Amino acid sequence: MDKAVSNLVSKGMMLPLMEAFYTIQGEGYHKGRAAYFVRIGGCDVGCHWCDVKESWNAKLHPPTAIDQIAEDAAHYSNTVVVTGGEPLMWDMGPLTAAFKEKGMQVHIETSGAYTLTGNWDWICLSPKKNKLPLEQVYIEADELKVIIYNRDDLRFAEEQAERVGPSCKLFLQPEWSKREKVMPMIVDYAMANPKWIVSLQTHKYLNIP
């Protein structure tokens, strides 16, 4: 990457774009709604069960002008979901401004491990044990989505729920490869603790991105 491009990336005017696509939101509060997804490369949180490990190395994904990203998104939907990787590794201010100029609703899916930048209509916080969210993200989160891989993750989920605001929606979601094993446990837990809602990766059942 040459110096000029590197400078634009550091300012959030270009971002390492892994992929962008129009589909149905498969998870959490907005499940079932059409949205344009923008997946930003780069992540050092390192979840061993991550299903998009190819997103981790930002150098593998071409720096792309945010105006082009926003222009492409506006052709498909009035809702855009920025995900990763970990998008907050980059300055999200310019990208969200570009989306807002086009009248879009702007959502983010984040581990919360980095400073919250950007202007968001919906913040989905999916915390990870090995790199916990910053306090600012807990406060701003609209949705808490905890991935359940084993029983200890239920304990972790309760710890995280204590840190978000009172209006934050609480979701438990089975890790896909363990879904048959952990789903009965999640169902029992949600029935005993009805503040929690069960989230499924319905896009995988529908065989869509």
TrEMBL record:
A Gene Ontology BP annotation from the UniProt entry: tRNA queuosine(34) biosynthetic process
Cofactor note: Binds 1 [4Fe-4S] cluster. The cluster is coordinated with 3 cysteines and an exchangeable S-adenosyl-L-methionine.
Binding of S-adenosyl-L-methionine, residues: W49, C50, D51, G85, S126, P127, K128
Catalytic activity: 6-carboxy-5,6,7,8-tetrahydropterin + H(+) = 7-carboxy-7-carbaguanine + NH4(+)
Domain Radical SAM core positions: 30-209
EC identifiers of the protein: 4.3.99.3
Top EC group: lyase
Record: residues binding substrate: I24, Q25, G26, R39, T83, P209
Listed cofactors: Mg(2+); [4Fe-4S] cluster; S-adenosyl-L-methionine
General function of this protein: Catalyzes the complex heterocyclic radical-mediated conversion of 6-carboxy-5,6,7,8-tetrahydropterin (CPH4) to 7-carboxy-7-deazaguanine (CDG), a step common to the biosynthetic pathways of all 7-deazapurine-containing compounds.
Protein name (Swiss-Prot/TrEMBL): 7-carboxy-7-deazaguanine synthase
Species whose genome carries this gene: Aureitalea marina
Lineage, top ranks: Bacteria, Pseudomonadati, Bacteroidota, Flavobacteriia, Flavobacteriales
GN (gene name): queE
